[in-house]
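Let us practice reading a record.
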Amino acid sequence: MNRGTTPYALVLSMTILAWPVGAQGADAASHAHDAHAHAPSGQAGAQPSGNAAAQKLPRILVHRSPSCGCCGLWVEHLRKAGFEVDVREVDNLDPVKTRVGIPAGMGSCHTAEVDGYFVEGHVPASDIKRLLAERPKAKGLTLPGMPIGSPGMEHPSGRSEPFVVRLVMEDGEIREFARHGE
């Protein structure tokens, strides 16, 4: 089944598009999620250093369904974080997900490619910046599903649920990369 046109995705897209203007992607909510991010085992690294922030970020290619509103909000989150973003609208994301190596059960509504890595779902820009700074031997990051409060999935009430971004290693092992909203 085409991931971009599942009944769940369509209902979710219609719900997001029906929210009042200004409630979808408030800068404060986006920055609050980035500020609460932390690495496993108490490692620092969720926020880029001053030097990393000054470096030019690579361009991100986002593959998304034309019918999904939250994907556009995530793209705006990336742009506000300093990324240049190209968007490719496709009706069937499955070939892209298969090509880049998204593991079964780890998918979401859009897939991005950046500097040799995949980014699946509503991964915060701070986690992408950390991935690019650390350069692990991995395929990419994934945030399965569409957690409320993740970038592009902000709720008008400010409600948020905790979520975990995972790192998919080259051998397919899946590790915790960052926790948000706790």
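A brief commentary: Residues 1-53 have pLDDT under 50 and may be disordered.
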